[in-house]
Amino acid sequence: MASAAPEAEQEQVVNPWEVSAGKGGIDYDKLVDQFGCQRLDAAIIDRIGRLTGRAPHRFLRRGLFFAHRDLNEILDLYEKGEKFYLYTGRGPSSEALHLGHLVPFMFTKYLQDAFKVPLVIQLTDDEKFLWKNLTVEESKRLARENAKDIIACGFDIERTFIFSDFNFVGGAFYENMVKVARCVTYNKVVGIFGFTPEDHIGKSSFPPVQAVPSFPSSFPHLFPGNDQLRCLIPCAIDQDPYFRMTRDVAPRIGYQKPSLIESRFFPALQGENTKMSASDPNSAIYVTDTNKEIKTKVNKYAFSGGQDSVELHRKLGANLEVDVSIKWLNFFLEDDDELENIKKEYKEGKLLTGEVKQILIKVLSEMVERHKRARAQVTEEMVDAFMARRPLPNMFG
């Protein structure tokens, strides 16, 4: 029933291009201290529910989005009747998204619906050309394919602008890039991102590209004359270095600092000490997987916190801290009471690992099927419409 997880004796590494856990998984308390962000507490989560008039998303209720920068400032402004906009993104390096890729978009859709605010989504096809062995043409093609999966999450076309860097960078956007670039020394960018003398110069020139969607003046067709509009960025915490840099530079070039709301990492099927990898399709569930593939992957690879025998499991129960099926249900099972009941019975040994995996397989299969149906409705014309440089007619409606 249980399977052995490799325990590497190593320090955790968390940056925009590499995430590797130390022994015992990612230490999020250490990350919060290291990065200098704040913990999301119950008071902020309750406040979001009160201001939006809807229950906080399960990612908030369960601490999956767990850290922030200046979120209270955004909520203060919103409470006074002022608006803000959302900014998130995707580095298009694979044909299809896996479920971990969907997490920030699922949460961003909730924020857009709850606060009724506009959203810009950056597809960093240039970044993937610089970091991966991809051609410009392939990077652009993957950006467009990934856009279809993003649109399938249900974003409001009247409040959403999706852009690829290769197609959009120029004009006011580029002006902001060079303003940021002039404020960041090479020593500073090495300190933040760990670039080495062997890295090509394209890498050190990229951070301003990801920084400037935080500034409304980068989008004159969306926010004309509204250069002080605040920005909220939902992202995984590995993206924090970009926005530490951005927040440092913003006041020096006359803009507001962006606020952030940051998530934990979505674990690989093999457990938190391993990384989801496109080179290992068995480490993740993809939105293109069949029901049979989902069933096989979960049954065969989802790391178990159960005991070695049924008898021992009935006696000792499961270790929920390492069980991947429980961790994934934490992300995707909507009903809090049902989740707590599963956890309780599994911990007490009343539920076996196989039974918990069956519950997860059902949840994932239904979710992936919903996504496939939605994506099948996304036409090339819809992608063009989301990516068109146009005013958003119902931006704050």
UniProtKB/TrEMBL annotation:
Keywords: Aminoacyl-tRNA synthetase, ATP-binding, Cytoplasm, Ligase, Nucleotide-binding, Protein biosynthesis. GO terms for biological process: post-embryonic development; reproductive structure development; tryptophanyl-tRNA aminoacylation. It is an enzyme of class 6 (ligase). Its main location: cytoplasm. GO terms for molecular function: ATP binding; tryptophan-tRNA ligase activity. Its EC number is 6.1.1.2. The keyword ATP-binding applies. The keyword Endoplasmic reticulum does not apply. Belongs to the class-I aminoacyl-tRNA synthetase family. This is Tryptophan--tRNA ligase, cytoplasmic.
